[in-house]
Amino acid sequence: MTRPLLRRLAAVAATAGVLAGGLLGAAPAEAAVVTGTATAKTAIRGSAATKGAVVGTLERGQRIPTTKAASHGWVQVRFRDKTAYVASAALTTRTTKLPAAPRALGKGTRIATARLAVRDRAAGSGALVARIAEGASVKLTGTVTKGYAQTTVSGKERWVSTRYLAAPPAKPADAGARAVAFAKSQLGKPYQYGATGPKAYDCSGLTLSAWKAAGVTVPRTSQQQFGTGKKIAEADLRPGDLVFFYGKQPAHVAIYVGDGQVIHAPRAGKDVEYSKIAYMPFSGARRPG
């Protein structure tokens, strides 16, 4: 092998090393290959768009592996072994010591954004007793101190860094809010029997599409939707719930938006609109999810 070729290969290897180091960073004490740091609370999305499905959430100061530089306002990241995206305005790859938001890490399940060290006390100097795989679920007790969240491993209290714990996808209550937001965005579109959007809807086509936008699948027809989900009393309605009308086998369905109102696709010749529940004979309500 000639010397010029050897020099060329060495240069390529060196460049590759620089790129890998610049993109992924050196492995920090608590996890491997984590360089993107959230500068504010931000969503992790399944696609590079504000309408992309939310697959997780980072609090300010939390970190996640970046796999591609910012482009068109988005940074490509790795989350649960899949490609995901974070708005570039809310993520920095510079070295930073932004504190995580401990109050946001209450009791519940979080997702490890990197291979996570489990320690016997809330300190980086605590003994390493286990590791949690990147993308694995971590159940927290609700106790947070000094940047560490308490968890339980083999029946014993253990600690993990809050910097590598993303929130999982939204709960049904939040999904309901997203379903309502979708329904509101369809106001004024015409009724069309059998239509599920995006230009027109029938009643169940609108509710199906609204919950699909929230990441939840519901059946196609109003009768089928009436037979699924959790039964909800009228007094306990919350935004996103499906409200049914006209008899024991409901012929009409709408989506509850609060203050005794629904959004629905009424009938031929009408557009998607607001209406009061009291204007139609109430049959019942269901909460998808």
UniProtKB/TrEMBL annotation:
The keyword Protease applies. Keywords: Hydrolase, Protease, Signal, Thiol protease. Residues 1-31 form the signal peptide. The keyword Transcription does not apply. GO terms for molecular function: hydrolase activity. InterPro entries: NLP_P60_dom (IPR000064), Papain-like_cys_pep_sf (IPR038765), PG_Endopeptidase_C40 (IPR051794), SH3-like_bac-type (IPR003646). It comes from the Bacteria. It holds the Pfam family SH3_3. Residues 173-289 form the NlpC/P60 domain. Belongs to the peptidase C40 family. This is Cell wall-associated NlpC family hydrolase. The lineage of its organism: Bacteria, Bacillati, Actinomycetota, Actinomycetes, Propionibacteriales.
